[in-house]
Design a protein that fits this description.
Elements (H helix, E strand, L loop, with lengths): L9 E2 L3 E5 L5 H9 L17 H13 L4 E7 L5 E11 L4 E9 L7 H17 L4 E7 L3 H10 L2 E11 L5 E10 L3 H14 L4
Parallel strand pairs: 5-6
Antiparallel strand pairs: 1-2, 2-3, 3-4, 4-5, 6-8, 7-8
Length: about 200
């Protein structure tokens, strides 16, 4: 599985996805402070003080072969503006999930998310030869659910009481997916949105 997810840099016109490293800790602290993202109770965005532990956990997942975390760099500003990750990888069944995604408030509802997803999906389907890519969101995270649907993903269902959050509340998880046969249409749709300057 470790060879299934090998570190790589993915670059488009708006963003560069860099393999997450310790050098990204300080710029990610600035990114999470942009909008105080951790205050959204239905997300798992770290506080500035929690970014170092967040990065360590992500790198541990990478070392065990289950995830490939990225820092997101805006090519317009040169700044690190968030994180995303290929995770819960299943090399045998050629499945992977896109998750742990968050962006500084200043780049939300821009081309950043659309292009990040386009780069990750293209890598998953065309390089890793996945047959299914999954995306998940908290039931109450209406913004993320709508953004995932706008990508062209289809909702598979809701996992009720899927996990216990740090505050003791239960999370209902909405599961979406894109399958191999759908990728050509989704790819064309995302490319069209990027060309038109539409946001996902």
């Amino acid at each position: 599985m470790s060879q299934f997810l090998s570190p790589i840099v993915l670059e488009g016109r708006h963003v560069r996805l860099e393999s997450l490293a310790h050098e990204h800790i300080e710029p990610l602290q600035r990114a999470t402070a942009d909008g105080e993202l951790w205050k959204l109770w239905y997300t798992a965005v770290p506080t500035p003080d929690g970014v170092a532990a967040y990065v360590e956990e992500a790198l541990a997942m990478q070392a065990e072969g289950s995830a490939l975390p990225f820092a997101v760099r805006s090519l317009a500003s040169g700044d690190i503006v968030g994180c995303t990750r290929l995770c819960h990888a299943d090399a045998v069944n050629r499945h992977v999930e896109i998750g742990y995604t968050w962006y500084a408030a200043s780049v939300q509802r821009s081309a950043v998310n659309t292009e990040c997803k386009w780069l990750l999906l293209r890598h998953a389907f065309e390089t890793l030869h996945c047959i299914r890519v999954e995306l998940r969101a908290h039931w109450h995270n209406q913004t993320s659910r709508a953004a995932i649907a706008r990508l062209g993903a289809k909702q598979d269902g809701v996992l009720r009481n899927d996990r216990i959050l740090s505050d003791g509340s239960y999370r209902d998880t909405v599961v979406f997916s894109i399958i191999e046969s759908e990728w050509p249409a989704v790819k064309r749709h995302l490319a069209f949105k990027l060309e038109r300057g539409n946001n996902a």
